Amino acid sequence: MDLKGKVAVITGGGSGIGRAVCRKLASEEVQAVGVVDLNDEIFTVCEEGNREQGRDIFFPFCGDVTNSEFREKVFASLEGQHGPVSLCVPAAGITLDRLSVKVNSKGDQPTMDLYSEESFHRVIDVDLIAPVYWAMRTIASVGVDRAKRGLKQWSPEESMQGAIVLVGSVSSAGNRGQISYATAKAGLEGAQATLAKEAVFYGMRCAIIHPGFTDTPMVRAMGDDLVSNYILPNTQLGRLIRPDEIAGAICFMLKNSAVSGSLWADAGWHPSA
């Protein structure tokens, strides 16, 4: 599928994998990229990106990806200015890591400390529910546009209309200290498999990539000691993955019409038990 002239929306586009995907899409000559991020530095990021590209391609939207009114504002703006949004990479994510159960054995009565429900809900909202809804809204954008043009079920004689790549994680297979994050990323697998079956009615594909530990602010926030002592020794590549490497894989998945499943870009990640 040729990405030239298409309209994309990328959440978490201010840094890390999301920002790298935006740059890669620019090289594919997409028409416009809605760059979504919670940090208001997104305006500077887009301004610099447009200057580098020599054209207005990046359009900033600052807000919470879990807010449905904000999501609709983003799509309404992009559709109004550029037409239907047919590419989506909902890359925004957070981690609120800690062990799921802690027991304090000091004193006469041991006490338990469970992972907080507030943290669990927040991670699920950002890392699972939000990306699914951004994906669904992208499918709807294409579906409504087709209906306006009198088109119903997509036919193989047509070209593919667009694609979505959800951002999973190697943690979806389970990872110590990531009860909420691992649950959210595993949930995306079920969402991807379902959306792939439904979205093709409108000529849309949905796939999922599971990156290994990538050199992003989220991973760096874990601390250099944890990265050096617990991540790199279990990675065949011997280093953190570069965001542009994941972005390249994502754009391959967007372009290749045969891709509708999952891709593990884990750099040989084999954690010890």
Written account of the structure:
With 273 residues, the chain is an alpha/beta fold. It has one domain (7-265): 3-Layer(aba) Sandwich (Rossmann fold), CATH 3.40.50.720. Helices cover 43% and strands 17% of the residues. It is built from eight helices and nine strands. The chain has helices at residues 16-27, 42-53, 68-82, 117-148, 179-199, 217-220, 224-231, 243-255, and strands at residues 7-11, 32-37, 58-62, 87-90, 101-104, 111-114, 162-167, 204-211, 262-265. The strands form two sheets. A seven-stranded parallel sheet has the order 3-2-1-4-7-8-9, sandwiched between helices. Helix 2 (42-53) links the parallel strand 2 (32-37) and strand 3 (58-62). Helix 1 crosses helix 8, helix 3 (68-82) packs parallel to helix 4 (117-148) and helix 4 (117-148) runs parallel beside helix 5. The longest helix is centred in the middle third of the chain and has 32 residues, at 117-148. The radius of gyration is 19 Å and the shape is globular. It starts with 6 loop residues before the first strand and ends in an 8-residue tail after the last strand. The model has no long low-confidence stretch (mean pLDDT 94).
